[in-house]
Amino acid sequence: MSGRPALGGLARAWVWALLLLGLCAPSPQPAPADPCPCEESALCRPVRDSRDFEVFVFDVGGKAWKSYDWSQITTVAAFGKYDPELLCFAHSKGSRVVLKGDVPLKNIVEPTFREAWIAKQLTLAKKQYMDGINIDIEQEVEESSPEYYALTALVKETTEAFHREIEGSQVTFDVAWSPKCIDKRCYNYSGIAESCDFLFVMSYDEQSQIWTECIAAANAPYNQTLIGYESYLKMNIDPKKLVMGVPWYGYDYHCLNLSEDHVCTIPKVPFRGAPCSDAAGRQVTYKAIMQQVNSSLSGSQWNAQQQAPYYNYKVSGLEKFCNYLVAEQLYHPQKYYSAAYLPQ
Ligand SMILES: *[C@@H]1O[C@H](CO)[C@@H](O)[C@H](O)[C@H]1NC(C)=O
Ligand SMILES: *[C@@H]1O[C@H](CO)[C@@H](O)[C@H](O)[C@H]1NC(C)=O
Ligand SMILES: *[C@@H]1O[C@H](CO)[C@@H](O)[C@H](O)[C@H]1NC(C)=O
Ligand SMILES: *[C@@H]1O[C@H](CO)[C@@H](O)[C@H](O)[C@H]1NC(C)=O
């Protein structure tokens, strides 16, 4: 879900721990069915209806889900701690709740390891009465490497196993904003799309690799976002298998220099071969942006080329060094949806 290097490292460390356990028990025991945590046992049944339109939400824990607009949501990917209350509530609204899946790719080159990993995910999903899995692997892969083939196989085998074992279940895969080896993720995108229910396209963190001037730009510039979708469609990926991911956060950059026309030069922080990246900035939530924008130095501004809002502000302690910060806001969601590229 997030391409930030720091988060990725943390997630990998955690997954390692799980996998070592998996190795000790390559064929997990069928889970003793946990008692249904919901008031009505019917709410423990996986959701079976198919949808024409997906509204897929990543939930990172806490109780924010209580304020979601549940009339819209079709699937919640549970990236936080398992919350049975969330599961029961989502099922009462006919929404799916899916697991997060991640695994070090060098480990899944071996087919028996893939099999053990899939069995473990299935056991967990069943035990928690969940409706599928969202595979979020953001690791580097070279084209035609053993990992390249193993990843496509992993997605295919996971989908087959989940569809077979949990009726109506959903298997999805998170991809970068463009299929063109973003962050050295050279995957078999068309093969993966074919092998799962749909791709979740992360149309954000689009400055993870800055190849031109090291200047702050929007989390998801409009043109860049569309170019990404066009590239997926050119690979003959079924448009129905592309779900657009919209960010609810922005980036806050410290500018080395802020020109009069609001061009913010950022420090060089390389990422996966690119000289500069959004890792020079800090992710800020939508809420924090909304609280700050009106009292900022510039107020809300609009970058016409990127079709994205932004603002500049100044940190008082640093004023004498003339250091400014620029927070790149997210799109106004309403505008984004109405302007979204809707493939035929
Ligand atoms: C991608 O995966 C599909 C499905 O497994 C396969 O048919 C195709 O040959 C693969 N493409 C490449 C370039 O490896
Ligand atoms: C830094 O910003 C100032 C003020 O707008 C501008 O005159 C100058 O050209 C900028 N310097 C660089 C290196 O971009
Ligand atoms: C910020 O300003 C806009 C435009 O003037 C206004 O609509 C909005 O309510 C203000 N937000 C806050 C939090 O004050
Ligand atoms: C985006 O597209 C518009 C219209 O085609 C064009 O005017 C603008 O320069 C483009 N922006 C970028 C960053 O390419």
UniProtKB/TrEMBL annotation:
Gene Ontology MF term list: chitin binding; chitinase activity
UniProt cross-references to SUPFAM superfamilies, sorted A to Z: (Trans)glycosidases
UniProt keyword annotations, A-Z: Glycoprotein, Glycosidase, Hydrolase, Lysosome, Signal
Annotated GO biological process: chitin catabolic process; oligosaccharide catabolic process
Family annotation (Gene3D superfamilies): 3.10.50.10, Glycosidases
Domain GH18 per the UniProt entry, residue ranges: 1-344
Function summary: Involved in the degradation of asparagine-linked glycoproteins. Hydrolyze of N-acetyl-beta-D-glucosamine (1-4)N-acetylglucosamine chitobiose core from the reducing end of the bond, it requires prior cleavage by glycosylasparaginase.
Family recorded in the similarity comment: Belongs to the glycosyl hydrolase 18 family.
Protein's UniProt name: Di-N-acetylchitobiase
The species this protein was found in: Vombatus ursinus (Common wombat)
Record gene name: CTBS
